[in-house]
Write a structure and sequence with these properties.
Elements lengths: L3 H6 L1 H26 L3 H15 L3 E6 L6 H9 L16 E5 L4 E6 L13 H9 L8 E3 L5 H4 L7 H4 L5 E8 L2 H4 L2 E5 L7 H10 L5 E7 L6 H12 L7 E5 L6 H14 L9 E2 L2 H9 L3 H6 L2 H48 L3 H61 L12 H44 L2 H19 L10 H8 L7 H5 L7 H22 L4 H14 L5 H69 L2 H34 L1
Amino acid sequence: MENTNTNTNYTQYADYKKKQSELAGLMDSAAGVISELNMNNYKQNLESLAEKVHNETFKIMVVGTFKNGKSTFINSFLGESVLPAYAIPTTAVINEVKWGKDKKAVVHFKNPLPETLPTTLPAKALEHISSFNKTDVPPLEIPYDEIEAYAVIPFGSSPSEMILESPYEKIELFWPLPLLENGIEIIDSPGLNEHETRTKVTMDYLAKADAILFVLNSLAACSQEEMRFIENNLKSQGFTDPFFVVNRFDCIPEGQREMMKNFVNTKLKGYSSNEIHFVSALNALEGKQQNDDAKFEASGMKAFEERLSEFLTKEKGKAKLAQPARELKRILNDEALFKVIPSQRAILSTSLDEVKARYEKAQPALADLKIKKEQVYNKLLLRIEQSKPEFRRAIAHNYTTLVDSIAAWVDETEPQTKIGLVPTKDKISAVTTEISDIVIEKIEDNQIEWKTSVLEPLIREKGDELLGSVEADVDAIFAEIDTINVDVSGKEYDTNSVPTWQRVAGVLGGLALGDLGLAFSGGMHGIGKEFVKTLALECGAYFILGALGLFNPVTFIAVIAAAILGNMWRGQNQAVEKIKLQMKDELIKQISETSEANTDNIVNSITEKFIEVSKLVTTALDTEITETENQIKAIIEEMDKGNENINERNNIISKCEEDAKELSGKLDNLIFSLVEE
C-alpha cells in the first residue's frame, strides 16, 4: 500500500499549515507596526510568539501498560516496521519519530549521565561516551536499522542490569513519511508499570505531549492497572480527552466483539469525548506493506487515522493558532490603536515645552512606582517564606504516616508463593517480589490520594494567598501608570478597559509564558490553579516514584536472603514473617534516612515555582513603567528635531494606524475561520 493513503488522511492538515503560514505573516507585519510605534516590549513578545507559531509541531504520545503493542501500533501507523516490537516489554527510552528526508537515528545522552551505566551498551555508545569523559556528551548519529541495540530493555542480562536507568535522554528517528513532514511527531514511550525506572521516563514526558493515544490490549482491556493509571495520572494531570485505542481486536472471537465494545465503552465512559477505536495494528501494518486496502480498512486503523487527522486540524491545531491570533489582535487593538497611537498624537500636538514640563512633573511619580514595584516583590518573597513551614509540616507528616501504613501493608499481605521447609534464594526472591508488588500498588494509591487531597489544595490555597496579597497593589500601580500617560499626553481614555490580569499576561507575552500566561484568565489569584497543574507534573512523579523507588528488588533480595539463609530460618511461616520483618526494617530505615532531604527538595521545588511567578509579575510592572518612560522620551526626541520631524512622525503614526486596522480585520477573519470551521 502506497503512502497516498496517509496523504489522503492528512489533507486537512495542509489547510492548517496554510493558516499557520498566514498567521506567521500577520505577525511579521504586526512586528513592523509595533517597532515603528516604539513599543519595544511588545516587539520582543511578538518575536517570541511568531517563533512559536513558525516552529509549531504536534507531539502525539503513545502510552499504555507494557506488552499492549504500542510499538507495533506506531509501525502500523507509519506503514513501516521501524521500531522494535516483541511479545515482551521492549522499549526502554523515549523514541521521537519525526520527518527526515534520509532515514537515520540520533541518540541523545542525559546530562549528567547515570552513575552506573549498563554493561550491555553498544560498543559505539561506550566509545562515544568515553571520548567525552562522560560529561556533556553530544548526540550520536547511528544507522536507523541499529536502533534496536539502543532502544530496547537488555533482557537476558542480570536483574540489576535490566532495571538500570538508561543513559539516553531520547532517540530521534528521522523518516521520510509525508505526514511527519507537516510537523507531526509520534512518540513511542516505555510501558507503564513495567518498572519504575522506565515508568518515570514516560511520566516525565507527558507534559510535552499535544495528544495522548492510550493503547489497551483487547485480551485484558481496562485492567486494574490501566484504569488506575487513567484515573490517577492522565485525568488528574489534565489529560481529560485522550484517544483510547484497543489493540489486537482480531484476537477476540467475532461473536464476542460487540460485548467487548460495550464493556470497554462502559468502563471508559467519562474519561474522553473521543470515540474508542478497536483495531488490529498488526493487520494494519501488513495491509499497508502488502498494498491490501481491504485488510487495512478492516483493521480499524483507517477510521482511526481519519479521526486523528480531524482532531489535529479542526481541534487541537486550530486552538493553538487561535490563541496567538487573539493575543496579536489584543496588542494591536487594546495597546496600539486604543492607547499608544492616540497618546503619541496628543503629545505631538502639544508644545514641546509643555510636554517637557509634564514629563518633568511626572518624574517623582515614576520613581515612586519603581519603589512600589520592589515593595510588591518583597511582599511576595515574604509570603513565600511564610508558606514554607506549612508545606514542610504537610510533607513530613506524609512520610511519618507512610511509615506506619507500609508496616501495616506488609503485615497484612499473604503471599501465594510457598517457600517450603528449606528456604532458597529463588523462593525468597519470589516472596519478596510478590509482597513488594502489592505494597508498591498501595504506596502509589496512597501517595496519589495524598497529593490530590492534601498537597494540591495546599498549593492552591497558598497560591491564592500569594497573589491575592498583592492584587490591590498591582492594580494601583497599573492605575498610576495610566494616570501618568494621561497627564503627559493630555489624552483621556478608559483606563479600566483592560483587566489587570490581562495586562500582566500581555506585557509578558501571553503565550510566551505558556500555561502560566493563560492562567491569568481567571484573575490575578486565579494563577493558583496553574500552580497545581504545573507542580503536579514536575513534583508528582517525584512524590510517587520516589516512594516506589524505596523498593529496590536487588537490594531487598540480597539483604533479606542473607538474613534468612545466614540464620538458617526454616519453615514456611517463620521464613515469610522474617521476610516481612526485614522488609519493614529496610523500608523504615530508608525513609528515615531520606525523608528530611526529600522534604527539603519538595519544599524548595514548590517555593522556587512561587518565586518564578512572583518575578514574572514584578517584571510585568517594571516593563510597563519602563515602556511609559521610553515612549515619552522617544516622542520628545522627535519633537526636539523640529516641525519637519513632527510632521513625519504624524505620517508614520497614521500609516501604523491604517496597517493596524487592516491587520486587525484580517485577524478577525482568521480567528473566525479557526473557531467556526
